[in-house]
Amino acid sequence: DQLLNRPRSLSGPSGKLTLLCDANTDGSFLVHHFLSFYLKANCKVCFVALIQSFSHYNIVGQKLGVSLTVARECGQLVFLEGLKSSVDVFFRAQAEPHPLQFLREANAENLQPLYEFVREALKPVDDGEAAWRCPVLLVDDLSVLLSLGMGAVAVLDFIHYCRATVCWERKGNIVALVHDSGDTEDEENNILLNGLSHQSHLILRAEGLATGFCRDVHGQLRILWRTPSQPTTQRDQSLTYQYKIQDKSVSFFAKGMSPAVL
Amino acid sequence: MAAVATCGTGAGSTGSVVAAGSKNHVTSFQRRGPRASGSDSSYSRLVSIAGTRPSVRNGQLLVSTGLPALDQLLGGGLAVGTVLLIEEDKYNIYSSLLFKYFLAEGIINGHTLLVASAKEDPADILQELPAPLLDDNFKKDFDEEACNHKTAESNIKMKIAWRYQLLPKMEQAGPVSSSRFGHYYDASKKMPQELIEASKWHGFFFPEKSSSTLNIEPCSLTHGYIKLLQFIQNIIYEEGFDGSNPQKKQKNILRIGIQNLGSPLWGDDICCTENGNSHSLTKFLYVLRGLLRTSLSACMITMPTHLIQNKAIISRVTNLSDTVVGLESFIGSERETNPLYKDYHGLIHIRQIPRLNNLIYDVSDVKDLAFKLKRKLFTIEWVQDNYLRQERNIYPPGFSYLLKQKDSAWGEGSLQHSTFLMSFLAKATAFASRLVRHSEPLEQTGSGRALQAAGPRLWRDGRRQEAPGLLVTPP
Fold this sequence. Notes:
The structure holds two protein chains of two kinds.
Chain A: E1 17-23, H1 28-40, E2 43-49, H2 54-64, H3 68-73, E3 77-81, H4 82-91, H5 112-121, E4 133-140, H6 142-147, H7 152-169, E5 173-180, H8 187-199, E6 202-207, E7 219-225, E8 238-245, E9 250-253
Parallel strand pairs in A: 1-5, 1-6, 2-3, 2-4, 4-5
Antiparallel strand pairs in A: 6-7, 7-8, 8-9
Chain B: H1 2-9, H2 43-47, E1 52-54, E2 61-63, H3 68-73, E3 78-79, E4 83-87, H4 94-109, E5 112-117, H5 122-127, E6 130-132, H6 135-153, E7 185-190, H7 193-198, E8 201-205, H8 206-209, H9 223-238, E9 254-258, H10 280-293, E10 297-303, H11 311-320, E11 323-329, E12 346-352, E13 369-373, E14 378-382, E15 403-405, E16 414-416, H12 420-438, E17 459-460, E18 463-464
Parallel strand pairs in B: 4-10, 4-11, 5-8, 5-9, 9-10
Antiparallel strand pairs in B: 1-2, 2-3, 6-7, 11-12, 12-13, 13-14, 15-16, 17-18
Helix pairs in contact in B: 9-10, 10-11
């Protein structure tokens, strides 16, 4: 997806939180893109996949050019498969604390076991061989945690702890997907979305077209660069593209310039 | 083709048919094999499950929902391992019919059924399943109808509404024999008793099971949901749908049907109050999907979403389900008297289709779908009327457009103003859309009113070629 022509240099200042947001459409193609991008760039990735199964990501990843099974075997990828583990957690009591422990509890307070899992997964390997580049945490997606009983504050705390560890301590990046519920009054989701928007360095927002469904233009992507740590007087830079998803890639074009319309 | 065969039988990571690994789970999302239509020996192991077929797009195993028209809209069928959520219509008439079609399809194909309900005993539900339509005695009626339909319309070549001819026609295929993929059912007759007896089914009737003790730590799920999840998990584990016990006989699909999930009969109060136990249903759906993904099963859930008070839950439930179809029946609503809908019984909204193993997904191009329950068939058709809404990517919704009506002077429909202002705006946007698409505006030949910009070939030789009737300005 080099069609996303924005500066994607890893040598630049890392420690970024990228927020992926989708409204009225499915933004999972962004998750697939980031996963394949970071794996190709030789980063150590911890992927908390709560929505789909491993083989789904694997098959799409192969279309984009990475093999998740190989990455998992050689240790580059740590994969938490939410759907499969939830069944294990729910039906059988686990001996040691499981990252999805909150499924069993009536009033789970925080996501600490999940945070411990992430911290353990992205721990720098001491023996020094096969040094991966910066660690990356990828979460798909955070809105599911709200559906599973956690409050918005608990999820924000989780991201805060992860940022402290991954971004500040280990100079890595975090990418998280949140659904924007639009006009339905999902207050918890709005709290989560607003809170994360203020903390993030880069916001990618995939929206459906305002005029409804179209076969040739699947949606619109808004990119917003921010500097949350230094309040500056200059405005944040923003770009808008429309996109069409194809079998192995996504093509972007400026608004109104879809090849189908011209 | 030789390369394809080796890919299928080899131990490649995508081509492997059975999962390697310590627990020997069979996930239904593995690539079953090459998409070739030929019969490879490794490929035939999984295709040999009756009533399933691999999807054309991504090799995913599909089962029929019981309605071939709905299968077509969902991209071929319901994928094994996913959840189909039906948002019920107001009086639960048509959604329970779809539920029965789903179960009847399972019986015809020999799948194992798991029926869960809090309202009716599953045995009673099974007694009321519709009978399958056999080839011979219905086919000739159907062919007659199809012929009448075709001769009336397809011979007229459309001149003004020419875009209609480019649109895909909904398939109106006839009933098929039992070895094929989808079947048609006769809603007026009941399924013969011997077929029901011969099938394998498990029932979960909540009022019977609610008295037994609970052996799981209290989490925020309601009692009914916990029992149902345990029941489903037991069946999957004992009968080996998740690959844990190697099945001696052939692999089969488990069809799970859950009726009226979320209604107060299950002990859930989201339909009663706004601030009820808001996580119970969503947690249930999440764990259910986890169970389905790791086993050879497919699930249909009907849910009375029109009763749920907290709208946020509906959006969360939609995000947690794979395929969501909403039914809206016209009974009792003001649409019943609308002449547009006089042939139909309700509308079908396909709200969500999953993207499985793929970045893209099959989505049908038509969005205004209505259903009707004729004597024997449940058909879904495109509501053909709004002439200009096909250019929806340029025209904003919310405008009422020029409506097409039958039997007009032109032979295929006349244009009738809904309101003058709306039609004026519609034509103004038509003019603007031509600018976008053709990047040359029409030459200004008239008085400059937007009414005159009606089409690229309207003005040729300085004379109007086709009379737009009501739109022309008086000379």
